[in-house]
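thought: user wants a sequence for this fold. calling inverse folding tool.
action: design(structure=
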C-alpha cells in the first residue's frame, strides 16, 4: 500500500490546554502547524475542576495573556462566575478565578483553532517520534500516527496530558482509559523510551459529578461572584463582560463521612497498593485528607456548576478512588447531598510522564533537537500550568525554526519563569502545582502588572498586535506620568484640607507633604484624595488607578525587592558552557557532578537551585569556570 506523507513545520501532540496554546502560538507566528488529538471533541477539555485561575494560577493566566496566549480571552468569553481571591491580603497574592462553562470553553477554543490560519486539527493517535542523526545529535524529523501516516516536520511539541498508558480506578474497577472515558494512548510511551526519554508514573484524581436536581441547596451557603467583574485578558473590554453570574455553594463533610471512609480504606486503590503512581500533595483525595488530617472533624466542600447546558455539579474537595457504593454512602452524609444522584463517579487516573532533568529551560529536550514538551507530561498539574508551558514551548519551537533567539523567562520576571525553572531544575517527587509561596519575588510578580512585565516580550516575539502594543504603551506612560505628578504636587495646610484629613481619621499634614505621601497612608488611596487634587486627569481607567495605588503605597518594599533581584541576576548572568564536562571537575562531590551533568544548567544561578548541589559545590564550580575561561 502507498504510504501517506505530509510535510509541515510543527507537530503538536495533544489538544489539551498546553497543546492549544502551543499550536496557536506556532500558527500565529506563521509556521504550518498540525495538532493531533485522540478526539476532536476533547479540544481544551476540562476533565477535572470547572474553573480557570485561582491562587497563583490566576497569575499564570494573566501572564499567558500578556505574552499573546489565548486562555485569558477564552475564559472571559465563557465564564459562569468571576471572583478575585485573597482581597483581604496584599496585592501580591490577589488572584482572579472564574468558574468556567466547560462545554462553552471547549467549544469556543475549538472554533478559535479551526479559524486560525496555518493550523490544521487532525484526529489521530501519534505512536512514534521520527528522528535522525544530524551533526552527531538526534534530531526530530516527524511523527507517525496509528494508521501509518507520516507527518514530516522540523519540530514536535509533546502535550500528551494524562493519556499515556492511562488507567482509571474506581474501587476494584480498573478501566484502561483516558480522562472522561476517552481513548488512552497505549503505544506512544514505548516509542519515547526507545529514543532515550525516561518516564515515570504519576496519579491524579477527580470527584463525582452530581445531578443538580438531587441537591438541596438550602442546606448550603451560597458563594457569589464579584459584583464588578474584572477580566483576565488585557484585551477584553470590562464593560462587555458584566453579566448575571451563577452561584456556587459551600458545605462540609462531617464525622459520619469520615467514619464511612475509614471503614472502607481497604477498598481504596490508594491504600490497597493498587495505585503505582505518585499523587499530588496539594490536591489530595478525601480519603487522603481523612487519614493525614485525622484531627479535623470536617473539610470544606464546594458545589460548582459545570455548564449552563448541563445539570452536572462538581463536588470540589471530595475527589476519590473509592468504590461506587462507598462514594454514594459517603457523599450522602454531606448536608445538602442526602438524596444526591451521581452522574459521573469519582476516579483516580494514572499516566506516564517524563522524569525530571531532561529538558532545557526552553522546554526542548536536551538530547533531541527540535523536540519540546509541555503540560502534565512534564510532571505538572493544572490547566493553567499546562497552558503556560504550551505557550512557551510553541514560541520557542517557532523561534528556533525561524533562526531567532528563544525566550527564557527567569524567576524574577514571571510566575511562568518560576514554574519552568522548578520543573526543569528541581526534582519534584509528585505532580507540581504552582503556589504564590514558590515565587521569591512575588511582590514584583503580581497578577495586576503582568502586562507591564511581559507585554513587550510578547510584542517582540510577534504574538501581540500593533494595536495592543500601542494601548499598552499609552497605559504605561499614563501610569508613569501620573505617579510623577503625585510626587510633585504639594498639598497646603488650608482649613479645608485639614478638615478632610480629620474626616478620614488621618493625621495632620507635615510641611512639604505631597499627594503621593497621602496615598501612602493606610487609610487613604488615589481615589480617596481626589477632593484635594483639582489637576487630576479625567477618566483614568481602573487598571491604571490600581497600578498607581500599588506603586505609590508599596514603593519602599518594591525598591527593596528590586535590589534582591539585582543580586539574583548576578548569578543568572554567570553562564556555564553547554559542553562543560562536570566529571572532570575533581573537587566537586560525586553527587554534584552527577546532578549537574544530568540537568546541564545554563547559569550558576540555575546550578545553585539543583537538589544535591551545595553552596560549597557552587564555590568550586565558580573557581573552575574562572580557570576554564582563561584557557
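)
observation: tool returned 631 residues.
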Amino acid at each position: 500500500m502507498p504510504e501517506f506523507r505530509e510535510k509541515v513545520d510543527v507537530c503538536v501532540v495533544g489538544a489539551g490546554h498546553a497543546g492549544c496554546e502551543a499550536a496557536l502560538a506556532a500558527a500565529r507566528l506563521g509556521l504550518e502547524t498540525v495538532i493531533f488529538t485522540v478526539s476532536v471533541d476533547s479540544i481544551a477539555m476540562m476533565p477535572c475542576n470547572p474553573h480557570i485561575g485561582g491562587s497563583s494560577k490566576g497569575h499564570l493566566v494573566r501572564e499567558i495573556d500578556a505574552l499573546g496566549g489565548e486562555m485569558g480571552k477564552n475564559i472571559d468569553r465563557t465564564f459562569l462566575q468571576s471572583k478575585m481571591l485573597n482581597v483581604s491580603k496584599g496585592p501580591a497574592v490577589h488572584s482572579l478565578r472564574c468558574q468556567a462553562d466547560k462545554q462553552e470553553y471547549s467549544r469556543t477554543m475549538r472554533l478559535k483553532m479551526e479559524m486560525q490560519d496555518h493550523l490544521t486539527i487532525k484526529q489521530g493517535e501519534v505512536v512514534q517520534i521520527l528522528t535522525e542523526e544530524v551533526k552527531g545529535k538526534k534530531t526530530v524529523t516527524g511523527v507517525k500516527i496509528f494508521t501509518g501516516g507520516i507527518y514530516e516536520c522540523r519540530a514536535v511539541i509533546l502535550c500528551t496530558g494524562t493519556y499515556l498508558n492511562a488507567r482509571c480506578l474506581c474501587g476494584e474497577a480498573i478501566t484502561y482509559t483516558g480522562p472522561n472515558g476517552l481513548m488512552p494512548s497505549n503505544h506512544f510511551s514505548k516509542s519515547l523510551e526507545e529514543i532515550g526519554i525516561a518516564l515515570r508514573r504519576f496519579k491524579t484524581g477527580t470527584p463525582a459529578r452530581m445531578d443538580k436536581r438531587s441537591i438541596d441547596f438550602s442546606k448550603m451557603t451560597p458563594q457569589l461572584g464579584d459584583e464588578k467583574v474584572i477580566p483576565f485578558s488585557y484585551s477584553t473590554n470590562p464593560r462587555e463582560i458584566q453579566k448575571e453570574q451563577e452561584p456556587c455553594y459551600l458545605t462540609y463533610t462531617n464525622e459520619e463521612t469520615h467514619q464511612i471512609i475509614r471503614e472502607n480504606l481497604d477498598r481504596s486503590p490508594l491504600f490497597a497498593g493498587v495505585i503505582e503512581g505518585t499523587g499530588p500533595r496539594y490536591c489530595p483525595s478525601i480519603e487522603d485528607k481523612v487519614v493525614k488530617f485525622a484531627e479535623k472533624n470536617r473539610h470544606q466542600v464546594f458545589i460548582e456548576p459545570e455548564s449552563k447546558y448541563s445539570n452536572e455539579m462538581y463536588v470540589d474537595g471530595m475527589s476519590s478512588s473509592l468504590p461506587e457504593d462507598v462514594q454514594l454512602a459517603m457523599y450522602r452524609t454531606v448536608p445538602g447531598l442526602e438524596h444526591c444522584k451521581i452522574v459521573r463517579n469519582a476516579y483516580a487516573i494514572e499516566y506516564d510522564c517524563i522524569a525530571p532533568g531532561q529538558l532545557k529551560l526552553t522546554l526542548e529536550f536536551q538530547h533531541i533537537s527540535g523536540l519540546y514538551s509541555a503540560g502534565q507530561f512534564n510532571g505538572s498539574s493544572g490547566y493553567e500550568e499546562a497552558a503556560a508551558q504550551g505557550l512557551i514551548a510553541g514560541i520557542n519551537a517557532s523561534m528556533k525554526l525561524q533562526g531567532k533567539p528563544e525566550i527564557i523567562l527567569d524567576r524574577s520576571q514571571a510566575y511562568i519563569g518560576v514554574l519552568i525553572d522548578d520543573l526543569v531544575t528541581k526534582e519534584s517527587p509528585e505532580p507540581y502545582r504552582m503556589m504564590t509561596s514558590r515565587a521569591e519575588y512575588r511582590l514584583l510578580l503580581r497578577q495586576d502588572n503582568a502586562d507591564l512585565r511581559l507585554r513587550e516580550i510578547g510584542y517582540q516575539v510577534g504574538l501581540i498586535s500593533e494595536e495592543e502594543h500601542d494601548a499598552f504603551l499609552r497605559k504605561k506612560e499614563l501610569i508613569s506620568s501620573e505617579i510623577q505628578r503625585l510626587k510633585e504636587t504639594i498639598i497646603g495646610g488650608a482649613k479645608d484640607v485639614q478638615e478632610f484629613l480629620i474626616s478620614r481619621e488621618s493625621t495632620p499634614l507635615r510641611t512639604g507633604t505631597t499627594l503621593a505621601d497621602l496615598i501612602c497612608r493606610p487609610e487613604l488611596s488615589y481615589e480617596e484624595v481626589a477632593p484635594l487634587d483639582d489637576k487630576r486627569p479625567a477618566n483614568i481607567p481602573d487598571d491604571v488607578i490600581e497600578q498607581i495605588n500599588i506603586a505609590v503605597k508599596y514603593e519602599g518594599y518594591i525598591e527593596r525587592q528590586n535590589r534582591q533581584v539585582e543580586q539574583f541576576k548576578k548569578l543568572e548572568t554567570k553562564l556555564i558552557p553547554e559542553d562543560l564536562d562536570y566529571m572532570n571537575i575533581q573537587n566537586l562531590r560525586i553527587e554534584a557532578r552527577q546532578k549537574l551533568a544530568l540537568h546541564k544548567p545554563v547559569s550558576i544561578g540555575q546550578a545553585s537551585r539543583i537538589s544535591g548541589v551545595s553552596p560549597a559545590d557552587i564555590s568550586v564550580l565558580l573557581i573552575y569556570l574562572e580557570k576554564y575561561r582563561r584557557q
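thought: summarizing for user.
answer: Here is the designed sequence. The chain is about 35% helix and 20% strand.
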